[in-house]
Each structure stands twice: as structure tokens, then as C-alpha cells.
Amino acid sequence: MPAPTPEPMTEAIVSLQHLQHNLSEIRRKTGEGVRIMGVVKANAYGHDVHRVSETLEQNGVTDFGVANIQEAIELQTGRALKKPASILAFASPLSSQIPFYLKHGIEMTLCNKETLFAAESHAAATGKKLRVHIKVDTGMGRLGLPPAAAMELLRASEQCPGIEVKGIYTHFADSSGDMEFTRRQLRDFLSLASEYEHSSGKQVLRHAANSGAILSLPEANLDMVRPGITLYGYHPAKETGTRLSLKPVMQVEGKIAFLKTVPSGSTISYCRTWRAPATTTIATIAAGYADGYPRALSGKGARVTANGQSFSQVGTITMDQIMVDLGTSSTAKVGDRVVLFGWEGPTTAETLADLSNTISYEILCAVSRRADRIFR
């Protein structure tokens, strides 16, 4: 019997059923002939990389994308994946990291000749082949080489017996907004891929579509797509024309730790930014910005849900707690759960993102490990 543990004050409920639903929605949009890479970087956007990857694998996903070699090793050695899987690390590696790609069979992003030659040297020393995906910068301006230089890198890779070019990929800069620019990126990428396949006589895995392109640019599906935020229940932008029937995968809840009645004129929290307009009940919820509830939401009218009723957060958000105005008729009591965002009530991660001038990605990734993950 495991030792008893204290009742958690903050929980992040992760619905694996909602995850499966979202994957089905993406698959319905792309069609069965397109591979889906599950993007599980940043601890699966805060949802738990192992349980998310396990669920994706059980539903037919065999490709996974992570940020770097550390995340790749964590996923591979975490025993969540029961079948052979391809794990691609998106970062351009340091030379000192290359042996770990070879040791663990992780697929590497290749962005320049210096890394290519270092990788070939390490591969030759171990007698192993290193599988790489060449990153092409068609307009994101972050990683990779422009198409002409990428072609030189591809040709140089052909001269390296320890290197296996498995894929070529690019990343769209504005696939939910500027579609003319996105189409130009796609044209440049496809021109490069076609030229390489024709000159080399080889076929490689071509992938470009992120969540925005999956929704707005079906011709970018190619051989594989890389959904991230849509897996977790959100659209990449409000401007996205096509909408899927997505369900939030995470719901964050905090417990009421304290209740008190305050008279009219009472001020609440740091800097006394909120003043009670009348006698009211204030609930202190055991969740703050250290749990991932942004301090930038202070005074923005964010709503929480308690016992099926919606209430306003008031005062400055503190590290470990927030205060909520329950009015005078609420039946809430100490220990009751309060939904900060999720599938219950009016508030989602997107709602909080709008109020705090950020994006749903950041809201999800910011939910800290102090919020116990509960899987359903």
C-alpha cells in the first residue's frame, strides 16, 4: 500500500479522452494517408509527456516531436512508449550532444555543415548511422538554412556514410494569418524537396504543416503533419478560418482555503487595487502565479467556477493564492473545488490568454508541477 499523501490544493485534470477526441478530429481533417507527429515538447505543453505519448501511441501515432535531446531521452527512457517510435528533436544540437543522439537512436535536426561534419565523425567512431531531418528556413528566421544553402547541405550529407537523411522540413511563420506568405514558404520548400529527390533518386519524409496549416492549408499536409496546440484542445489563432470540434485536455482547479465576510470599502490583496463595493464574501483559493495562474490577470475580470456558479477574481494575484468575490448568496465552503480554467464554466486557457495578452500555449505550459496531474 502506498503511503497516504495530503489532499492536493491545486490539481490539473488531464482528460485523455479529450486528447483522443482531438487526435480523431485532426485525423479526420488530414485524412488517413497522412502521418501525424505528436508534438509533445515542453512536457506535452504541460500535460505530462509520458501519459500523453502513451495515449497517442495507443491511437496509432508512431512519430513524436520534442524540443531537444534532453526531452527526447526523457521520453524514450520513460517506458511510456511500448512500440518502436521515431522521436525527432527540433533543436539544432551542440556538438557535445551528438553522441547522445547516436546512443539513444534519436532523430536529429541538421541545420549546417559544421554540425554535419561533427555528426559524421561521431557516427564513424561508433559504427552507427545517425538519422537526420534537414531544416529549411523558408521564412521563419529561427533555425535552418535558406533553400539554396539547404540544397548544398543535402548534397554534402550524401557524401557522409554515417548520415541517413530521413526527412526534410520547414516551419511556417504565420499559417493562421498571412496565407500568401505561407503559400510562398510552401512553394519554396516543395521546390527544394522536388529538386533533391530528383537529383538524388531518393524519397524523403517531407513535413511542414503545424496546427495552423492543418486547418488552413491542406496542400501543406505532405507526408506528415505536426499538430501541437490542436492536440491539447485549442486553435492556434482566432483568425483561423477552419475550426475543428476541439475539447480542452486540461482543467486546472484550486481548493477554497479560507472564507470571510468583509464590509463595504474593504481592500483586497497587495497594493489594495480592489475595494469591496458592498458587504461580500471573499474566498481565498489555493492557487497563484507559482501554480501557473498569471499575475497579469490581476484586475482583468477573470472568472472562476464554484459549485456551478461563475465568480470574479479580485485584487492582485499572489504567488500562492487568489481571491474571489462570492457575493452574499453563494453556498461554497472551505475545501470546495474551484475551476480556474478548463472545460467546465466560461473560462478556458484561451480566455485567460486574451485577458493577459498572451496565447493559450503559454497558459498551458505555465501550469507548474505544484498542480498535481490527475488523469481521466
Give the C-level CATH assignment of the largest domain.
Alpha Beta
Q: Would you identify the CATH H-level superfamily of the largest domain?
A: Alanine racemase
- Architecture (CATH level 2) name of the largest domain: Alpha-Beta Barrel
Distance between the termini: 22 Å
Which segments are poorly predicted (pLDDT under 50) over 5 or more consecutive residues? Answer: none
Can you tell me the overall shape? elongated
The share of residues in extended strands comes to: 15-25%
- Round the Cα radius of gyration to an integer and report it: 24 Å
Strand tally, please?
A: 18
Strand order of the largest sheet: 8-7-6-5-4-3-2-9
Number of domains: 2
CATH fold-type name of the largest domain: TIM Barrel
Q: Describe the sheet with the most strands.
A: 8 strands, parallel
Average pLDDT works out at: 97
**How many H/I helical runs?**
11
- In oligomeric terms, what are we looking at? single chain
Helix-strand pattern, N to C?
EHEHHEHEHEHEHEHEHEEEEEEEEEHHE
Assign the structural class, choosing from mainly alpha, mainly beta, alpha/beta, alpha+beta, or little secondary structure.
alpha/beta
Helix content: 25-40%
